[in-house]
Specification:
8-oxoguanine deaminase activity, 2 domains, Amidohydro-rel, 4-stranded parallel β-sheet, Urease, subunit C, domain 1, binds zinc ion, hydrolase, Metal-dep_hydrolase_composite, 37% helix
Length: 492
């Protein structure tokens, strides 16, 4: 596509506006624009990538590839020789592999404070949750904000440019606003999921009564968050998601009311589903239905819904999800850590179910490295279903286009004119890629996980030469570790 054609892509606003610096953009974000379209700042030219993976319709992989970016969107993609030769900022990608920014569809970032907690090291889902709820009951707003910064830094440095976060516990005045503040500070594209728990032990649920909220309060706060923050425009940096935690921690009523609210405001729905055998048993005993039957009954299916895990989704459930466009967040490391099983990802994808990748919370996947998760997805499918169950390119597609589809977006996940300017690069000259350069794309998945050299989100350089540009990470990690110690000791 030529730049003239790219100019006809569905973006609005005057073609030329005065250039703005990052500080002005941040000020604009703080004003909460409701419809993000074209954000103007310096044009960026990316040139001479050894290989540029487009994930476009033809899945082109370009040698000596490049991009031309205006504001927050890509206007041209092609071999370097066919692109303009100058711009306000030129990034020389010699020796680098460039791919679309990875999309993380499931996380609980606050759990970065409770990694490798001894009592939860060797338990399955329900036992694991039970030992951690009482630790999480002491979370504070500061802990939420700092742990979200740390979690996002880890994601960014491992190739992720868009992440969802499912925050479902709000003790001591914590709010989803605390996560949103962190996302804005670090510059990550963010789908903030307003989770919730309303059925405590005394009502037959799993969480302690002290950490559940009243359903009326949950709905009221969810609406406030949508009205305050949700941006449904193309290239949105921030969307809000309605996300009761799981069938075993909220009521049928709250699930139904949540779906009604999400449709009223045009936002997505997210929860955990069919995670392991106990989860299935709970659903059958409590609701007399499989998890898939339960969500169908509640109206929790459609292209605006995605469910985490679905390890134990049966064939009828796969058909239902395919028919309705309901998405799945596949979380291989977490599924292995908790011995939940192997999700039938190949079967889901062949049937037409949208599948994205998720690192899941840092207490059940103690490393939230996005490119490592891509590799783990490939390896785990092979353990379950044979050596040709997933290729390296399949795994990358799930982590880019798949994630975009699951989050109900068509402006991220590929490098093509009219798409958001979100990409990352990996330096192929590192020892970990040595000997694999006959196929750098496969090398990225098969070889040991690497950190990015560059990450650009919405046209803004967020990682440069392997370092975050938006945050001095050292002091944040020190503060994170101090808060983690306080949290852990409070429950000891
Ligand atoms: Zn989860």
């Amino acid at each position: 596509m030529t730049m003239e054609q790219a100019a006809q892509q569905p973006t609005q606003g005057p073609a030329q506006q005065p250039a703005q610096g990052p500080a002005q953009q941040l000020a604009q974000q703080a004003d909460k624009p409701k419809k993000t379209m074209l954000v103007q700042h310096a044009d960026v030219l990316v040139q001479h990538a050894d290989v540029l993976v487009t994930m476009d319709g033809a899945r082109r992989e370009l040698r000596d590839g490049g991009l031309y970016i205006e504001g927050n969107r890509i206007v041209a993609v092609g071999p370097t020789a066919q692109l303009p030769q100058t711009a306000d900022e030129v990034l020389d990608m010699r020796g680098q592999l460039v791919i679309p920014g990875l999309v993380n569809t499931h996380h609980h970032m606050y759990q970065s404070l409770t990694r490798a907690v001894p009592a939860a090291q060797n338990a399955e889902l329900f036992g694991w949750l039970t030992s951690l709820y009482r630790v999480w009951a002491n979370l504070t707003p500061e802990m939420i904000e700092v742990s979200t910064l740390t979690a996002m830094a880890e994601l960014l440095l491992s190739g992720c440019t868009t992440s969802s976060d499912h925050l479902y516990i709000y003790p001591n005045g914590s709010r989803l606003d605390d996560s949103i503040a962190a996302a804005r500070r670090i510059g990550m594209r963010f789908h903030a999921a307003r989770g919730s728990m309303s059925v405590g032990r005394k009502d037959g649920g799993l969480p302690p009564d002290s950490v559940v909220e009243r359903e009326a309060d949950i709905l009221k706060d969810t609406q406030r968050l949508i009205e305050t923050y949700h941006d449904d425009g193309r290239y949105a940096m921030l969307r809000v998601v309605v996300a009761p935690c799981s069938p075993f921690s909220v009521s049928r009523d709250l699930m139904r009311e949540s779906a009604r609210m999400a449709r009223q405001f045009g936002v997505s729905l997210h929860t955990h589903l069919a995670e392991n055998a106990n989860d299935i048993a709970y659903s059958r005993e409590k609701f007399g239905m499989t998890p898939a039957e339960y969500v169908e009954d509640l109206g929790w299916v459609g292209h605006d819904v995605w469910h985490a895990h679905c390890v134990q989704l049966d064939d009828a459930g796969i058909d239902l999800f395919a028919r309705t466009g309901t998405g799945v967040a596949h979380c291989p490391c977490s599924n292995m850590r908790l011995a939940s099983g192997i999700a039938p990802v190949g079967r889901m994808r062949r049937a037409g179910v949208p599948v994205g990748l998720g690192v899941d919370g840092s207490a059940s996947n103690d490393g939230a490295q996005m490119i490592a998760e891509v590799r783990q997805a490939l390896l785990l499918q092979r353990v379950g279903f044979g050596p040709d169950a997933m290729t390296a390119r399949d795994a990358l597609e799930i982590a880019t286009l798949g994630g975009a589809q699951v989050l109900n977006r068509d402006d991220i996940g590929a490098l093509a004119p009219g798409m958001a300017a979100d990409f990352v690069s990996f330096d192929l000259r590192q020892p970990l890629f040595a000997g694999a350069l006959h196929d750098p794309v496969a090398a990225l998945v098969f070889c040991a996980p690497s950190q990015v050299s560059y990450s650009v989100i919405g046209g803004k350089v967020v990682v440069k030469d392997g370092q975050l540009t938006t945050l001095d990470l050292g002091p944040v990690i020190e503060r994170h570790n101090r808060l983690a110690k306080t949290l852990y000791e409070a429950a000891a």
